[in-house]
Amino acid sequence: MTDSLETLVATTVSALGLDLEALELTPAGKKRVLLVALDRDGGVGIDDITDATRALSEVLDSSDVMGDTPYTLEVTSRGVDRPLTAPRHWRRNEGRLVRLRLLDESSVDGRIGASDDDGVDIVGRTTTRYPYTQIESALVQIELNRKDA
Asked: Which entry of 36, 57, 85, 148 is 20 to 30 Å from 111 by CA?
């Protein structure tokens, strides 16, 4: 994937107040699929996806960044299956259940508390502060029947 494609997509969605979370270009037979995952504070709704799809279609069609090979554009929200990797991910998921895998290979489950640019509080029986540098990976856990929500 070219830097010019990523720059074009990031600039376009940023103008709409959205963050580019993922950009994947994969072959699909004689075509390609361009997947664009977006997020922002407060979440991404269907109107945001529609606006971003229209704007991206216009700029991609008017540029030569995708070349001559046909492609399908798919625009989606970040989703809960993507790992938490940036401080904004922690902030946007405060209160959600998360599973951390730490660098020492232990794991921790708890709720996301306060976070900043350096680390996050995980609330369980007690509240523990984890610097991001100690976290190998983190995934929000799906809760279908949360009692206190």
From this structure: 36
Q: At a CB cut-off of 8 Å and minimum separation 6, what does 90 contact?
A: 84, 112, 115, 120
Query: Where does residue 80 fall: left (phi above 0), alpha (psi -120 to 50 degrees), or beta otherwise?
Result: alpha
CA 145, 94, 10, 138 torsion: positive or negative? negative
Q: Are 19 and 9 in contact (CB under 8 A)?
A: no
Which tens digit of pLDDT belongs to each residue from 24-53? 999 988 899 999 999 998 889 999 999 999
What is the sign, positive or negative, of the torsion defined by CA atoms of 75, 81, 85, 87? positive
What span, in angstroms and rounded, lies between the C-alpha atoms of 57 and 35?
Answer: 12
Query: What φ, ψ does residue 34 adopt, rounded to 5°?
Result: -105, 110
Classified as helix, coil or strand, 112 is strand
Alpha carbon of residue 111 to chain centroid: 19
**pLDDT digit string, tens, across residues 10-25:** 999 999 999 999 999 9
pTM: 0.75
Strands 97-102 and 107-115: antiparallel
